[in-house]
Amino acid sequence: MIFVNFLILIAGFAALVKGADIFVSGSSSLARNFHVPSLIIGLTIVALGTSAPELAVSTSAAFQGSNEIALSNVIGSNIFNLLCVLGICAIISPLAVDKGVLIRDFPLCLVTTALLPLLACGPVLFGGNLMSYGVAQEAGTITRPIGLIFILIFVLYIGVLIYITKKQNSAPEEDEGEKVPVWKCALFIIVGLALIIAGGEAVVYSAKEIARAAGMTETLIGLTIVAVGTSLPELVTSIVAARKGETGLAIGNAIGSNLFNLLLILGVSALVHPISVNIASVYDMLILLGISTVAFIFSLSGKRIARLEGILMVALYVGDVCFAIFR
Question: Within its chain, how far is the Cα of 257 from the centroid?
């Protein structure tokens, strides 16, 4: 039976990735029909498309009351993006870090990552010895007001990005050739969304069954298997960008995705259903904060992530997964 669930899990990941691709294609074409600038399409629709697997899985998990998967998927995806996606890309080609990422996106990512455990688990963090609690013990809740705060920060962030980018790219865009008919764009969007929703449901269902059969916690499977699977679009996009020498796109995609995951996906999931946080997830949030700080320091040193630092980041990811398993 566990083999069948693994097949369902793989099929779910395939549906998520293909659905996101079709959704982005249809949405981008529809936006061009209404003369929406490509820079705004890139900042919103394409970025949302690469984060669609995480959104589908976390909201599906929230609807089903699987809080551990909803939260650990976001934390695990962010850890994977920072250590594996950036690490592998740096090994392929040292990553030059854009000034805007250093002074705007990365600091916001750090602040948001720190804000999450403070708002959700403040009393446990400051009220006593964290080590005295069992890993399955409840530590706090990501409430609907917290979710709303994160969504408002996300909307403000996107607004600032659009304003800055429009100001920097005020030249009119050239005609991009033959436009895709509106009915075809709508069909792509519907099919893409259907695949994303079905894939998200399949991944959550199969992940829960695999966890139950293998004696794993939902937190662990969400942090590892589910997180890696839903981060495939970011990994593929960033590796392709790094191989082409577009290192700015590679790091921007990873950091942007982390902000989408924390602010939009976790915010929407918490609005759907308040997410209870166990002690294991508190450890993971603190680890994510530490990793984010390390990645930011690497970025500040020479304003790039070198190959050796990339190797260290991948090694850190392997160590983090081992810690999560043996914990």
Answer: 5
Q: Over the chain, what is the mean pLDDT?
A: 83
Q: Which CATH class is domain 2-326?
A: mainly alpha
Q: pLDDT at residue 37 above 70?
A: no
Largest CA distance in the chain: 64
What's the chain's length in residues? 327
At 164, list the tokens.
Answer: 């800055």
DSSP label at residue 217: -
User: Mean pLDDT across the stretch 277-297?
Assistant: 90
Domain boundaries, the chain: 2-326
Give which of 228, 213, 205, 187 is closest to 321, Cα–Cα: 228
CA pair distance 7, 45, nearest whole angstrom: 30
Enter the pTM of the model.
Answer: 0.82
Query: What are the residues whose beta carbons fall under 8 Å from the beta carbon of 229, sequence distance 6 or more?
Result: 9, 12, 13, 16, 53, 203
Which pLDDT score, from 0 to 100, does residue 39 have?
53
Nearest to 273 by CA among 143, 140, 122, 136: 143
93, with CB counted inside 10 A (0-12, 13-18, 19+), is middle
Q: How far is CA 140 from the centre of its chain?
A: 22
Q: What are the tens digits of pLDDT across the range 305-318?
A: 888 989 999 999 99
Strands 304-305, 275-278: pairing kind: unpaired
> What's the rounded Cα separation, in Å, for the pair 86 and 81?
6
Query: pLDDT digit string (tens) for 52-71?
Result: 788 888 888 888 777 778 89
3-state secondary structure of 18: helix
